[in-house]
Amino acid sequence: MTPMRPPLAIVPAHNEEASIGRVIAGLRGSAPGVDILVVDDHSTDGTAAIVERLGVTQVRLACNLGYRNAIQIGCAWALANGYQRVICFDGDGQHPASEVLPMLERLERGEGDIIVATRYAQEGAPGASLGRFLGNQFFSRVASRLTGQRITDSTSGMKALGPGVLPIVAKGDFLDLHAEALVYLGLRGFRIAEHPAVFAERAGGVSMYGRLALLRYPLLTGTLILCSIARAWLEGDRGAGR
Amino acid sequence: MSGSFLFFATLVGLLLAAYALHLVIRVRLYVGYAVAWLILIAVGLVVLNLPVFWPLLRRLAGTPDTQQAWILLVLAGVVFILMYFSVQLTILSKRISDTARHLALRETPPPPRRDGEDPGKAPE
């Protein structure tokens, strides 16, 4: 009989040579029982070489496919290799490795089908730029209202996914796996739990959100939220996750 | 409809049709897409040059002016074709993503074995 795989940390990385070594060291130090998979989204710097030198398994993409695809490819690899629980952990050094095990333990205890690390568990917690903070809060409230579940940080990339949601996330049509994904999963009946965490500042590299993101992100996310509602309604099995 | 507008619109339509055929001959345009443009041009030219269709055209567009009605319907046709091309681009983009994903997953080794794992069996 095949033993159950340990949890897997999926680390999407695009030109993260300044931080990827520290991210892997942090994961190894704080979550020693967790396997690591780096999805190198066609980096042109030394990211892939650093990951290889550290002996971490990596999926290397032949062209830049973006954050969502990197996560989904990581999920597909996890499923193909028997993993049932994964945690998405950004390669830019913003996510706290110390919260990986607590989040996975909450997932294991069945506190949620998806555990989302939140920077805004407490009122008045500091965030990113004002534009991003307002966008995050707007879509978090929309997602909360639509799903009936508490969501305070819809743009958090640090998420622990259980066996129920893993195949859906691996194949779903999402933008960045943010509010639109949470709305879809919530409406499908999956339980979303939040986990307070303190994120660090980006250690290096360039954010995937440029100046146009302030315009592009709300338009795309808003449209995809509408599509998520329609999809969940058309599929008609709101209780699938329960 | 003025004679000069008829002449100009017919000329532009014929030139566009010739350009589409030229691109197909030079293997720069897929014949399926060329056909979409040629059908739009043909329908536009037939409706434009046969006055018997003009009352129908005005009724469809809801305007008393034939010229306006024709421009409106041609514009709707162009928007429809652009929408069709957006769909084709999305399909192409998805295929590229799927190909890159397939290649990346095929070339990635399985995870290292841990103590107690049966090397003879793949995970379920």
What's the gist of this structure?
The complex is a heterodimer of chains A (242) and B (124). With 242 residues, chain A is α/β, with parallel strands linked by helices.
Q: In DSSP terms, counting alpha (H) and pi (I) runs of 4 or more, how many helices of chain A?
A: 8
Query: What is the strand tally of chain A?
Result: 7
Which structural class fits the helix and strand makeup of chain B?
mainly alpha
Cα distance, first to last residue of chain B? 72 Å
Largest sheet of chain B: none
Helicity range of chain A: 40-55%
- Please write the CATH class name of chain A: Alpha Beta
Number of strands of chain B: 0
Structural class estimated from helices and strands of chain A: alpha/beta
Q: Biggest sheet of chain A, strands in spatial order? A: 3-2-1-4-6-5-7
Largest sheet, strands/sense/barrel of chain A: 7 strands, mixed
The total number of structural domains of chain A is 1
Which pair of chains has the greatest number of interface residues, and how are they split between the two chains? A-B, 25 and 21 residues
Shape of chain B: elongated
Query: From the coordinates shown, what is the CATH architecture of chain A?
Result: Alpha-Beta Complex
Strand content bin of chain B? under 5%
Features:
heterodimer; A: 242 residues; alpha/beta; Spore Coat Polysaccharide Biosynthesis Protein SpsA, Chain A; 8 helices; 40% helix; globular; B: 124 residues; mainly alpha; elongated; disordered C terminus
Topology record:
The complex is a heterodimer of chains A (242) and B (124).
Chain A: E1 8-13, H1 20-30, E2 35-40, H2 47-53, E3 57-60, H3 67-80, E4 86-88, H4 100-108, E5 114-118, H5 130-147, E6 159-161, H6 166-171, H7 179-187, E7 192-196, H8 213-235
Chain B: H1 3-25, H2 31-49, H3 54-61, H4 66-107
Describe this protein's structure.
- The complex is a heterodimer of chains A (242) and B (124).
- Chain A has helices spanning 20-30, 47-53, 67-80, 100-108, 130-147, 166-171, 179-187, 213-235, and strands spanning 8-13, 35-40, 57-60, 86-88, 114-118, 159-161, 192-196.
- By secondary structure, chain A is an alpha/beta fold.
- Chain A has a single domain (8-235), classed as Alpha-Beta Complex (Spore Coat Polysaccharide Biosynthesis Protein SpsA, Chain A), CATH 3.90.550.
- In chain A, strand 2, helix 2 and strand 3 form a beta-alpha-beta unit.
- In chain A, helix 5 packs parallel to helix 8.
- By secondary structure, chain B is mostly helical.
- Mean pLDDT of chain B is 88; it is low at 119-124.
- Chain B is built from four helices and no strands.
- The radius of gyration of chain B is 26 Å and the shape is elongated.
- In chain B, 74% of the residues lie in helices and 0% in strands.
- Chains A and B meet through strand 3 and helix 3 of A and helix 4 of B.
